[in-house]
Write a structure and sequence with these properties.
This protein has about 200 residues and is mostly helical. The chain has one domain (about 1-185). Helix content is about 70%, strand content about 0%. Helix 2 packs antiparallel against helix 4 (about 50-75), helix 5 packs antiparallel against helix 6 (about 105-115) and helix 8 (about 140-160) runs antiparallel to helix 9. It is globular, with a radius of gyration of 16 Å. The chain starts with a helix and ends in a 12-residue tail after the last helix.
Amino acid sequence: MTAILVACGSYLIGSIPFSYLVARAFGVSDVRRVGSGNVGATNVLRTAGRPAGVLAFLLDAGKGALAAALFAGLAPGERALPALAAVSAVVGHMYPLWLRFHGGKGVATGLGAFVPLAPVAAGIAVLAFALVAAATRYVSLGSIAGALVLAAVAFAERGPGPVAAAAAFTAALIVFRHRSNLRRVRASTERRVGQPRE
């Protein structure tokens, strides 16, 4: 019963559509109908501007951190429940109840969720994202690299426990949500950082 409550509570936290709300506040009526159609910080940045994109990223990351930290605080020493909270928050962001389950790709929320659980892995994941995104100029590849590195480092650092399992599952979800981006990368039609819209 406790696990169900944690999963449901974290899902609801994660499903708060901050990117959608921030975009609306900055003049984009429905971020799902512009740009990539993704309800995430990158699309908000491209369609509503840098301040909006940064704010959306911070809020989306913050809700992931809140869910994981909240249940870590409520169950000190317990590792499985905060890990479940992290995954549930990411699922909530990807499939939010309030937007008919049309959400984002979980990168910012996933990063935020693992900051309280595996801060070293989260920091290295940010570095991996930055290096891959800078080298390829594809945010999508940077996001995938960051997610995979987070899972690998969490496993190396903590062993095969709940946090590592949650990180691996989250990485798999993020890769799955980026499958259309990967198809566009292979077809050389994915938009690069700094590339003007045609």
